[in-house]
Design goal:
Chain lengths: ~550, ~1050
């Protein structure tokens, strides 16, 4: 009876998509989950800039805002996570939605007939690379996770095997099959896949295997538009919307503002991380820790204090903690690595073209969250409305890409590899490339052109004690990553893969909890448990017994 | 032989002409004249006069020695032949075998509210109606509990046309409303029946002279006191000091209240909050420094005085709001045609500034006799509504009501130059000035036009067989636009303005054909209706555009193309549903004693792959009062027991696209800026829905047993029903593992639910000889709801999102929408108590002690329990009316007993770190300190964790029982001689109070809370129902 047959309106069925054009559209759908947010799945709490799971957990920042605002995130900074905490469920769902979208695409690709094989392979190798990437994210968050490819049947897959080989295989497939030139800068190409593969190998301490790939990227790597990777002149340009997709950007989440998505493509995961009442106006989350700020203290040679003395009372960076914006305040005048003031907003320092950071007027609850604001994902006043969403309750939705892999990190991988392989001088050379760039970059200046603080940074001279042994060199490398890549979502995962999370994080908590007593009350990192996050209780409950919880949760 | 004279009058004292006066047991009689006077000669031996007149109770009077006998005749108020509209039929009330309640226009009109749904609360047993006080907002109507997790709205049938919304109806146009509650009554509506059916019949013209009537009322709604548990400015400062005392530091520098030192002096209330904490004479307060640049909000310098006493934000954003209604109707008819024309204007301003609901509607109903055997007719209503509600919506923390407790009292409404003040001042939280917010909505519009009607033809084919065909439907058109201004006064401001404009249309139609056969022979009476119906509904689309960055905020500049940036342009199409149905009902009565009814409907629907389903019912009744053993019992006028069993369906709960595997894409879910443009993204698709071709209707298997009894010549009437309804094949979408991806998961027919309950209605009415008229009507509604099954391996699902996670649980073995969380056992009194208690994260003296329900020594997610239920044990309506001569009085009381409320507003007011809004008096005066160990509110501290305010707990659950005087009115009807002079046929004036008082232990604004079926009874900041006083008049010309 035709009257009783009504087709759905406004949607597509699979047959319409079974062609190259359709597959390309599904591939865009796979890319669109890279940022970790999607209105149909989950929101800011699963941001794959990992400001929660990498930076806050790594001690670079605390949750910020005020005490009661999103207390679920505070569980991460105090390592009191419970598996029922819904932020983990959101994170799990977006990562596996990315995988499901990929496998749907590959299955469809397998049924397209009569098309040019190279075209099909070009789509397939992007999809497989992204599948490897999503599994990598799951692996480093939760440890024991299921792996799904296009042949996996059903949704009940146990988490009982080590999936590193499968992640490696996916990424290697991309590295071996993707072309260099992709025509669009947001795509993965051969070198992006190579960088992801190298990252996965380094996470497994397979330094020897990683070395040739990292060297190939350094020597030959180009971005999907054919631009050779390089450290760009200015450190701070890496965090400026108008320099997105520079030669240093190996792989970034492409953020776009005013594209009709209501902000869901404009760094939705960063939505809370703008100074309260300052640029972006909301919501005062993600406040850098005092310990992190102290790390930028340098000695008279412009070198970091690898012995940990940066936290001593004489070295700790002076802040306006406890002061109102109208109270008098004299800036710290000790030597500081200039990268600090491109990474952290602090009182009295110019905040791009917004004027001087006013201190407490941009802080939601200074007593709880401290005196600092983040800066790397911020934007300039001149960019408001052009590269920020208009018509939303916040302008903290920006086109400022999140750099997932910067070329600076590739250089630091090379350094790490050489340290682990015993070539300490080579490692020093690599680290010095980073420091040299920091030195030669523009510093934050006042309107009259004078430096906003006593900035000092220099390279490690030959024979410096920091490269006298592998143990010392590791410290220097660990420190350099903190300074160069701070607040970029890496720190917690780094500490875990280095095996130093217990020592570093409990030291951090001991220090910071003296200052931020409420925020870190009762915090303690438990090495038997907290190297990975709890698998969401909800997912275990509906897994028909296939998912097992991580030990300790 | 002697002569008796007298006057026969009605209760109002008006003479009744034409009354028959008969000498008992003779044929000798007389009649009253035009003034009601009579005279009769009585032969010897006779002593009793009988006065009788149609429509009045007869009276017998002994003559004895009297020569003048004045008689007051009382109107006959019995309803033996009351007709009730039922499914595709009109039946005598005494013949009904299913469970049907009916209410007439006069009773409905006692409640002066905007919508018909709103009038139904408490009036009919088995029907629960919940409304907020927001003008124009829809009410929730639920019949006999819940039938589904997805859709519990009853089916509405207006003059034979099926629809899902009757909010556009003018209540004054309604003649009667019938509610079909059980399968016996409702399963004739098949796959749309299981939530019950509400049949609305509109008024018709009658043969006779033109009747013109005008009804009007005007009144004022009073917002009342608002929140009475909030601190003033001094209290807030004292509380901040207490929080510091309870903290770890020894000195703190507060932006407003100065420096706190442990053991030091009290807080200082500043003269200004901008500059923060400034005192009079501070150079920063010099008005010449004030700078307000409307074009550049980042370049302003506001100077804001502190409200040192305290702003009552609820009072600032509310007002005494007028409400008025005007109705004119013209009705009449000749031999061959009848008509009714009605016009209505309703205007209700809300108590919250800038909120209102206006309705203009017109009705035209007519009927024409083409021949002796053929009639055609039509019903039509056109309505136009304008609405403005709460910015941010009702039951939301951003709305004006919630800002009443989220704004601090120290913040004034305006700064020193009259611009808005707000949380821009430091340490004043993240509320937003509701006066500013509502005020800026002044030019927003939400318009709605609806046409609803049908045309029909009726033909009497033979004396026993008639045919009726009706075609009708609705068409709704909505249009809205609203502007979001930039703000400057807040802690978090809107930096870029934006404008949204959109439209929608919705339509549906029903085409119904029935054949009705009725015949009586000997003691048998048969009525049968056979029908065919086809329909299509959910035909509709929406479109909206949203642009931002408007150069000017001038209201005259607001068109979409004037926005510099496009934010969104979208449209959405509904997938319509088509249906074809065949149905049959047959009613059989033997000797008026035994009644039997059978209905069956076979429904086909496009929502299902397997398209046809059958929904039968059978009911019977036995009139005991006709049996010999009861026949002459003097007090019993009618006694009938009835019972029935049947199956109803629900297709509304299933999306028409559930059966399909679909792909789709949208900017917010699957687009990506692959080219790195920063300002645009490329279209991408994703799996959108996983289909289930096998989903079927939900079914309700229903048994009903009832008694209809009337006593004392129908002065006392009791209707009592017991029912058991098991809902089978309930649609539920058991969550798939995250590994399945983010596509919508399909609904499966897996759930089961049980509702059992008792509905009762008791009516007593009497007219006393002294002219006193009295009627009372009591309804009782009680049901028990239990979820029997969800899905394999799924025992519960959650709903009721909040700042502390989900509040509501829908769990097997419990009723829908129960509250869920940790049971508070008390407050930890000492570290020793903490140490000896089960392990609880962040436990400390002064914080909650939660119950270790599973006894494992650790407080964790498994210790969360059901904390209460928003479903009342029973609800009752008590209607009372009294009349004496020309005066009338009526009142209506509504009670809800045994329902719990989750008062989520306490999260904001009773815990310091739950944003820095206004806080409760309890938190300052009755929170835990070592010196106040008996406190029930935890310690005032700036710490948020598991043991303080981060978890759902029993702390928020309150008893929500209430008794409310919904209305009370006194009216006066002018007597006939006065009307003659005014040339009116009727004139009545009345005064009325609504929601006059409410007796409740609930601490929030209003215990009547609107919410979804899987999460209701939660107070997030609800627009309250308030007191209202009005005067009205009814005029007949």
């Amino acid at each position: 009876d035709d009257f009783l047959r009504v087709n759905p309106i406004g949607t597509l069925d699979e047959n319409v998509l079974r062609n190259v054009a359709g597959a390309e559209k599904l591939l865009i759908g796979v890319y669109s989950n890279l940022d970790g947010t999607s209105q149909n799945v989950t929101s800011w709490n699963s941001a794959s800039s990992n400001w929660i799971y990498g930076s806050i957990a790594g001690g670079e920042a605390n949750k910020g805002s005020d005490a009661g605002d999103n207390a679920l995130v505070a569980q991460v900074q105090t390592f009191s996570m419970d598996a029922a905490n819904d932020i983990f469920n959101g994170k799990w769902r977006i990562v596996y939605d990315g995988i499901a979208r990929t496998n749907t695409l590959i299955n469809l690709l397998n049924t397209i007939e009569g098309e040019d094989e190279a075209t099909i392979l070009r789509i397939r190798s992007q999809a497989v690379t992204l599948r490897g990437h999503y599994h990598f994210e799951a692996k480093r968050l939760w440890g024991n996770v299921p792996y799904l490819n296009e042949d996996t049947e059903g949704y009940y897959v146990p988490n009982d095997q080590d999936i590193w080989p499968l992640i490696e295989a996916d990424l290697r497939f991309g590295y071996e099959n993707l072309p260099e030139s992709m025509g669009e800068v947001g795509r993965v190409n051969k070198w992006v896949a190579g960088a992801m593969l190298a990252k996965a190998l380094i996470y497994q301490q397979k330094f020897q295997e990683a070395k040739p790939i990292v060297e190939a990227i350094i020597n030959n790597g180009v971005n999907p538009m054919g631009v050779k990777y390089a450290l760009i002149d200015n450190f701070s340009d890496n965090f400026d919307i108008e320099h997105n997709n520079s030669a240093e950007s190996v792989f970034a989440w492409q953020y776009s503002a005013n594209d009709g998505s209501g902000g869901w493509n404009a760094g939705y995961g960063e939505i809370l991380n703008f100074p309260y009442g300052g640029p972006g106006s909301c919501c005062g989350f993600f406040q850098p820790s005092q310990e992190f700020v102290n790390s930028f203290r340098v000695d008279s040679n412009g070198l970091p204090m690898l012995d940990g003395s940066y936290n001593s009372p004489e070295n700790a960076v002076k802040s306006d903690d406890g002061l109102a914006s109208t109270d008098p305040f004299d800036l710290d005048n000790g030597p500081l690595d200039p990268r600090l003031d491109w990474t952290v907003g602090r009182r009295g320092i110019p905040f791009f073209d917004w004027g001087l950071h006013p201190g407490r007027d941009w802080i939601r609850d200074q007593n709880y969250g401290g005196p600092y604001t983040p800066k790397k994902q911020l934007y300039k006043k001149s960019q408001e409305g052009l590269f920020t969403e208009v018509g939303q309750w916040t302008t903290g939705l920006t086109a400022n890409n999140y750099n997932y892999i910067r070329f600076a990190e590739v250089i630091l991988w090379a350094a790490e590899i050489e340290i682990e392989l015993g070539n300490l001088d080579l490692a020093r050379d690599y680290i010095n490339m980073i420091r040299e760039r920091a030195k030669n970059s523009e510093y934050v200046t006042y309107e009259d052109g004078s430096a906003a603080a006593n900035y000092q940074v220099d390279v490690y001279p030959p024979g410096h004690i920091a490269f006298s042994s592998q143990i010392e060199a590791r410290k220097a490398l660990y420190f350099e990553r903190k300074l160069e890549l701070g607040l970029e979502g890496h720190r917690f995962f780094d500490l875990v893969r280095w095996g130093v999370a217990n020592e570093y994080l409990n030291d951090f908590i001991n220090y910071e909890s003296q200052i931020r007593t409420q925020a870190y009350q009762g915090a303690a990192f438990n090495p038997g448990t907290n190297n990975v996050y709890p698998i969401p209780l909800f997912q275990i409950d509906i897994s028909r017994g296939t998912l097992q919880q991580n030990p300790g949760y | 032989q002697k002569t008796v004279t007298g006057t026969i009058t009605d209760e109002q004292g008006e003479g009744i002409p034409g009354v028959t006066v008969l000498i008992k047991n003779t044929s000798i009689g007389s009649a009253s004249d035009i003034d009601g006077r009579y005279s009769i000669s009585i032969p010897d031996g006779s002593n009793v006069l009988v006065f009788s007149f149609i429509g009045y109770n007869s009276q017998e009077r002994a003559v004895d020695n009297q020569s003048v006998i004045d008689v007051v005749l009382l109107e006959d108020i019995t309803n033996l032949t009351e007709m009730v509209v039922t499914g595709y039929a009109v039946q005598e009330k005494r013949d009904i075998t299913g469970s049907v309640s009916q209410i007439k226009s006069e009773q409905l009109m006692e409640m002066p509210v905007a919508t018909v749904e709103n009038q139904l609360q408490g009036r009919l047993s088995g029907v629960n109606v919940t409304s907020s006080g927001q003008p124009g907002a829809p009410s929730t109507v639920r019949i006999r509990g819940f039938s589904s997790f997805q859709a519990n709205e009853p089916l509405y049938v207006v003059d034979g046309v099926q629809t899902t919304d009757i909010s556009s109806l003018n209540p004054n146009d309604v003649e009667s409303i019938s509610v079909l509650k059980d399968a016996g009554a409702a399963s004739i509506y098949g796959s749309r029946a299981s939530n019950g059916v509400i049949l609305v019949t509109t008024k018709k013209g009658r043969k006779g002279e033109l009747q013109i009537s005008y009804n009007a009322f005007y009144g004022v709604q009073n917002p009342g006191q608002g929140f009475n548990n909030l601190l003033d400015t001094q209290g807030m400062a004292d509380l901040q000091w207490l929080v510091f005392e309870n903290g770890t530091s020894n000195t703190e520098n507060h932006p407003l209240y100065g420096t706190w030192n442990r053991g030091g002096s009290g807080p200082r209330i500043p003269d200004y909050i901008l500059p923060a904490g400034a005192m009079e004479g501070d150079p920063g307060t010099d008005p010449s420094l004030y700078n307000f640049d409307p074009d550049n909000y980042s370049n302003i310098n506001q100077i804001v005085r502190a409200n040192q006493v305290g702003t009552n934000w609820f009072r600032e954003v509310t007002r005494n709001a007028p409400i008025q209604n005007h109705d004119i109707s013209l009705a009449g008819g000749g031999e061959k045609s009848r008509f009714l024309v009605g016009l209505n204007y309703f205007n209700q301003d809300g108590i919250v500034i800038e909120s209102f609901n206006r309705r203009y509607s017109a009705r035209l109903n007519s009927e024409f006799e083409i021949s002796n055997r053929v009639r055609i007719g039509q019903n039509l209503q056109v309505s136009y509504r304008e609405n403005r509600g709460l910015v941010a919506g009702n039951q939301a923390e951003g709305n004006a009501i919630a800002q009443g407790f989220r704004m601090q009292p120290i913040v004034p409404v305006r700064d020193i130059m009259g611009n808005f003040a707000g949380t821009r001042a430091p340490s004043t939280g993240n509320g937003s000035n509701p006066v500013a917010r509502q005020g800026r909505s002044r030019f927003n519009q939400d318009l709605n036009t609806r046409i609803l009607g049908n045309i029909y033809v009726e033909a009497d084919l033979t004396d026993n067989l008639s045919f009726r065909s009706s075609a009708g439907g609705t068409y709704t058109n909505g249009y809205f636009y609203n502007f979001t201004n930039r703000t400057y006064e807040n802690g978090q401001n809107v930096e870029a303005n934006s404008f949204t404009e959109g439209a929608m249309f919705m339509s549906d139609w029903t085409f119904t054909n029935t054949l009705t056969y009725s015949k009586t022979f000997d003691k048998h009476r048969i009525t049968a209706v056979a029908g065919y119906e086809s329909l299509k509904f959910d035909i509709g689309r929406t479109v909206s555009g949203n642009r931002g960055d408007y150069f000017s905020e001038d209201p005259d500049f607001r068109t979409l193309d004037n926005g510099a940036q496009i934010i969104n342009a979208s449209s959405n199409a509904l997938t319509p549903t088509t249906g074809i149905s065949y149905f049959l009902r047959s009613d059989y009565a033997y000797n008026d004693k035994y009644l039997l009814s059978f209905t069956v409907r076979r429904d086909g629907s496009s929502r299902f792959r397997d398209q046809f389903g059958t929904f039968p019912s059978v009911t019977g009744a036995w009139r005991l009062s006709e049996e010999g053993f009861l026949l002459n019992s003097g007090f019993l006028s009618d006694l009938k027991v009835r019972g029935g069993y049947g199956v109803m369906g629900n297709q509304q709960s299933l999306s028409p696209i559930n059966q399909f595997f679909l792909f789709g894409g949208s900017p917010n879910t699957s687009f990506y800026d692959i080219s790195g443009s920063n300002t645009s993204s490329v279209q991408g698709f994703r799996p959108f829905r996983i289909g289930n071709p096998d989903a079927r209707w939900e079914r309700a298997v229903n048994a009903n047993v009832g008694i209809d009894a009337s006593f004392f010549e129908d002065r006392l009437i009791l209707v009592l029903d017991w029912y058991r309804r098991e809902n089978l094949d309930l649609l539920y979408n058991p969550p798939l593992p995250g590994l399945a991806g983010g596509a919508d998961v399909p609904f499966l027919n897996v759930g089961r639910m049980l509702n059992t309950g008792i509905d009762a209605e008791l009516t007593y009415r009497n007219n006393f000889r002294n002219g006193l008229r009295f009627e009372t009507n009591i309804t009782l509604t009680t049901f028990r709801n239990e979820i029997l099954n969800l899905a394999d391996g799924v025992n519960e699902f959650f709903a009721g999102d909040s700042r502390i996670g989900n509040i509501s649980i829908n769990r097997v073995g419990n009723p829908m929408s129960a509250f869920f969380g940790y049971q508070v056992e008390g407050i930890f009194q000492s570290q020793e108590e903490v140490n000896s208690a089960p392990t609880q994260a962040f436990a400390a003296p002064g914080r909650f002690r939660f119950a270790d329900v599973n006894g494992d020594g650790v407080i964790g997610p498994d210790d969360r329990v059901v904390l209460g239920s928003p479903i009342p044990d029973f609800t009752a309506g008590i209607n009372l009316s009294l009349g004496y001569q020309n005066w009338d009085f009526s009142t209506f009381l509504f009670a809800s007993v045994g329902n719990d409320i989750y008062n989520f507003t306490k999260w904001y007011t009773d815990f310091w770190p739950s944003f820095q809004g206004a806080k409760s008096i309890d938190l300052l005066q009755n929170s835990w300190t070592p010196e106040n160990p008996g406190a029930t509110t935890p310690m005032a501290e700036n710490v948020s964790n598991f043991s303080t305010n981060a978890q759902s707990s029993s702390y928020y659950v309150e008893d929500g029982s209430f008794l409310r005087v919904r209305q009370m009115q006194v009216g006066y009807t002018f007597p006939g001689h006065a009307l003659e002079r005014l040339k009116l046929s009727r004139l009545r004036l009345y005064v009325q109070g609504t929601n006059l008082f409410t007796i409740t232990g609930y601490s929030g604004l209003d215990p009547e809370l609107i919410g979804g079926d899987t999460a209701f009874g939660i107070d997030y900041g609800n627009y309250p129902n308030v007191r209202q006083f009005l005067v009205g008049l009814n005029v007949g010309f």
